[in-house]
Amino acid sequence: MVIILIRTVQYNLSKLRDVYLHTTCLATLANMAPHVHRLSAYASQRLVSLFYMLSRKYNKLVELRDDKLQTKAISTGDGLVEDMSAELQIYTDFLRIVLEILNAILTYALPRNPEVVYAIMHRQEVFQPFKSHPRFAELLENIYNVLDFFNSRMDAQRMDGEWSVEKVLLFIINNCRSWRGEGMKMFTQLHFSYEQESHPEEFFIPYVWQLVLSRCGFSFNADAITLFPVGMHANKEIYYDEMNTNQNGELNEQRVQVDP
């Protein structure tokens, strides 16, 4: 389930860019996080890679926004900067949720998930640029507490030859037994619930039929379509960013704020 949700987010990030789908998948992962047990090596690696992918998108948006702020060369620059800032806020929220997912696993289920510890140690450099970020600093403190605990013990252990993957994993498993969580900040467990608004069919019926039209390979008479704007499907493609403005479902409790 973790792998499927992460792959969905990654595909959505590169192809569809549907904020609604991002939010739902990340919320599902967050609900599962405190109960993760023996997460596989691949799933653990993909979870850390998800943070890296979102961070690259975040950094790209920061650079674009800063360039526009410096140049202001075009008349629409202010509006463009405002749009970038809004999108940047969305990705800030997404990154925070991924950090909260990792925190929940490390806080409530670390001894049961040595592969997650290994994945974080293996890619610990991806977290470094965000250590002083005001939205992420407190969450990264816990991650670095875990890293310090295992790194210091690894440095202190004399090893014949180089550290192999198997040796590092065995080392983590053995040291998980002495992990007591000292210095870890306890955050409230994330809990997302789906709240369906009145008349959800106004969103879901056009949404489903747009998917059908774009994916099924059947021919439809475009002049007869009245459920949604036909112009959106000139090339049998869906513009999901436009579709997001009409969504009739939202997540409450620990919401990610998305413009309606």
From TrEMBL:
Record's keyword annotation contains Transferase: no
Source superkingdom: Eukaryota
GO (cellular component) term, any one: Golgi apparatus
InterPro entries: Dymeclin (IPR019142)
A single GO BP: Golgi organization
Entry keyword set: Lipoprotein, Myristate
Homology family: Belongs to the dymeclin family.
Full protein name: Dymeclin
